[in-house]
């Protein structure tokens, strides 16, 4: 199992194109923010201190959340590649159980998703520092790493179920394009969630990754928010929090960190169980 996971990780990082396209949505978000969105957002908050620090932290949170999806999907490309090249049949002729093979794919996707998300976090923190912000305190950093691991777990469960239906490279390319395009919208990165129509917001709130982005924003934006909104009216702070998707409005209440954690953990466990059941039924 571990050897299979190592083999998959090596194959992923050996293919520079796969790594690039896994991060393509991240590059697009950075480009849009640097060239267009950043100045627009900052100008809209010009009356608040540390506005740049707040919004840089907001975009970095979205980048990390997005990467936990796209990098994990890129890692699962090894499965499709093995099917199209009949490598799976070679494994079948070897003394390797199907459960062991599947576990190797899952472990490698988790490792790759976490590593690439951490790389994105480091680059994002350096970007914040260069723009006059501050690095995350140690406790906040540890919390972010925990959220990255949990987010990758939930996202890998969703993607593993989807990939189980994909058997060709063309189909995988289509899925990758759709996911890479939608992830920025679903996580409220291209457009803040509060700017979306109400019916679109309802759809976005059904996507587990939205809660991943929310969790990361709560942690990463805590310090800059304290600076920027110190002494600000409560309704102003509330409006910003809901507008930017830091916390989501669920009925009359705001989402909490515990709610987000339970949604992500529950999604991961449930969908992995469904995937395992499907594979067993398919085997029969």
Fill in the keyword field for this structure.
79% helix, single chain, 284 residues, mainly alpha, two-stranded antiparallel sheet
Proportion of residues in helical segments: over 70%
How many strand segments? 2
Task: Assign an overall shape.
Answer: elongated
List segments where confidence is low: pLDDT < 50 over at least 5 consecutive residues.
none
Strand content: under 5%
The computed structural class is: mainly alpha
H/E element sequence: HHHHHHHHHHHHEEH
Global Rg: 20 Å
Tell me the span between the first and last alpha carbons. Answer: 23 Å
Characterize the largest beta sheet: strand count, sense, and whether it forms a barrel. 2 strands, antiparallel
What spatial order of strands do you see in the largest sheet? 1-2
SS summary, helix count: 13
What's the average pLDDT? Answer: 84
């Amino acid at each position: 199992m571990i050897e299979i996971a190592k083999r998959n990780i090596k194959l992923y990082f050996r293919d520079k194109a796969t790594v690039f396209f896994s991060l393509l949505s991240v590059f697009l978000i950075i480009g849009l923010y640097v060239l267009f969105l950043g100045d627009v957002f900052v100008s809209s908050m010009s009356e608040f201190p540390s506005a740049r620090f707040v919004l840089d932290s907001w975009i970095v949170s979205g980048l990390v959340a997005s990467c936990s999806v796209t990098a994990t999907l890129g890692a699962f490309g090894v499965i499709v590649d093995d099917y199209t090249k009949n490598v799976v049949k070679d494994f079948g002729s070897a003394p390797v159980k199907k459960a062991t093979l599947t576990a190797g794919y899952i472990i490698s996707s988790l490792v790759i998703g976490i590593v690439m998300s951490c790389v994105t976090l480091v680059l994002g923190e350096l970007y914040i520092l260069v723009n006059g912000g501050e690095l995350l305190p140690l406790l906040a950093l540890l919390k972010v790493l925990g959220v990255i691991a949990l987010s990758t777990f939930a996202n890998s469960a969703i993607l593993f179920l989807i990939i189980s239906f994909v058997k060709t490279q063309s189909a995988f390319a289509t899925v990758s394009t759709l996911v890479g395009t939608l992830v920025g919208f679903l996580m409220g990165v291209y457009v803040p969630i509060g700017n979306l129509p109400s019916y679109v917001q309802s759809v976005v709130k059904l996507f587990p990754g939205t809660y991943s982005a929310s969790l990361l924003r709560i942690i990463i934006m805590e310090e800059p928010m304290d600076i920027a909104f110190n002494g600000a009216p409560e309704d102003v702070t509330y409006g910003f929090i809901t507008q930017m998707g830091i916390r989501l409005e669920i009925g009359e209440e705001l989402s909490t960190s515990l709610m987000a954690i339970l949604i992500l953990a529950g999604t991961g466990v449930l969908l992995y169980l469904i995937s395992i059941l499907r594979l067993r039924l398919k085997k029969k």
